[in-house]
Design the sequence.
């Protein structure tokens, strides 16, 4: 599996101080973030939707969606930048192998990391570099408000992640480690995360947790 060293998390006192600065009846950050990390480590599969608005150096993807599994498989569609062009493609990933189908022709087998698949979405559930690891590598967090996201009641937090942990998950150049994150009030799982820098925004939606999913090679 792809891995990074676990970043040193901030002390509980820092979380508690942040939690006292706002958020009303939201759980304290030192409760919410560890609960969310634990919940995300138990996820077997999830549907994701990644949208990039604006220019994000280092991330050659305009949009991507699909299903990912904790065992390193995924399938879906995306708009990627390759060879100076935006290309609509379908993809399947099983471990270290991937298949991509462009606007014409059938599926081509390629290695993960090829220019035709510049982002590996299976990282989102990777035990060493995924969302759970990111939630364990937090420099500060502050509760903001409650909010409904696509019919789900959530808690909204502003979170600053360790830059190294964030860079392993989403390879965007620059300071993209500050985010707004929405957590499911019932399960503590991540529902939405939004990262912004200048006029550019990266938005990640996670839905349909732990459905009956099978990913097969094309």
Sequence:
């Amino acid at each position: 599996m792809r891995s990074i060293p676990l970043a040193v998390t901030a002390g509980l006192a820092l979380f508690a101080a942040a939690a006292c600065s706002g958020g009303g009846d939201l759980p304290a950050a030192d409760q919410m973030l560890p609960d969310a990390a634990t919940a995300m480590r138990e996820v077997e599969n999830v549907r994701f939707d990644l949208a990039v608005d604006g220019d994000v150096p280092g991330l050659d993807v305009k949009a991507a969606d699909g299903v990912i599994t904790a065992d390193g498989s995924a399938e879906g569609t995306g708009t990627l930048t390759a060879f100076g062009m935006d290309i609509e493609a379908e993809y399947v990933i099983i471990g270290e192998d991937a298949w991509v189908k462009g606007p014409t022709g059938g599926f081509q087998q390629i290695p993960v990391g090829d220019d035709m698949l510049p982002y590996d979405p299976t990282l989102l559930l990777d035990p060493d570099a995924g969302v759970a690891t990111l939630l364990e590598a937090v420099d500060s967090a502050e509760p903001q408000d409650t909010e409904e996201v696509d019919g789900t009641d959530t808690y909204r937090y502003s979170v600053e992640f360790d830059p190294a942990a964030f860079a392993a998950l989403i390879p965007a150049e620059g300071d993209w480690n500050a985010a707004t994150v929405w957590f499911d009030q019932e399960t503590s799982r991540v529902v939405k995360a939004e990262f912004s820098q200048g006029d550019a925004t990266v938005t990640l939606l996670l839905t349909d947790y732990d459905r009956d999913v099978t990913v097969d090679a094309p």
Summary: The domain at 12-207 is CATH 2.50.20.20 (outer membrane lipoprotein receptor (LolB), chain A). The chain is about 15% helix and 40% strand. Residues 127 and 133 are 7 Å apart (CA to CA).
